[in-house]
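Try this one yourself first.
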């Protein structure tokens, strides 16, 4: 993966996972109620990489860095948090993977309440 990651445009998930969530926060600024909360999603690969996960780990780390900055800018108006759920059971099943420490999506969803 490292050899094939030659520019920002080639990072998998960059447009959807990073840009989509950044835009969500940007668009919410003028509409969120005082004391409201925005919760974004990162991923386990920023802290616990596996072989071939460099590009995805970068995108996850970018989401986490953005949340830290956005939380400072919105302090007193709204909370901005990030959830890093780890491996989700249904995703692993759909991609034919197995991992001993996976979590069902219904349990992960509780973190967003």
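Now uncover the answer:
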């Amino acid at each position: 993966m490292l050899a094939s990651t030659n520019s920002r445009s080639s990072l998998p998930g960059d447009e959807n996972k990073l840009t989509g969530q950044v835009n969500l926060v940007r668009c919410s600024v003028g509409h969120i109620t005082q004391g409201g909360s925005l919760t974004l999603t990162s991923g386990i690969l920023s802290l616990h990489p596996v072989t071939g996960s460099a590009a995805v780990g970068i995108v996850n780390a970018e989401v986490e860095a953005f949340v830290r900055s956005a939380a400072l800018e919105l302090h007193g108006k709204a909370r901005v948090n990030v959830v890093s759920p780890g491996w989700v059971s249904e995703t692993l099943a759909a991609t034919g993977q197995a991992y001993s420490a996976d979590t069902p999506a219904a349990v992960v969803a509780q973190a967003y309440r």
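Discussion: The chain has four helices and two strands. The chain has a mean pLDDT of 87.
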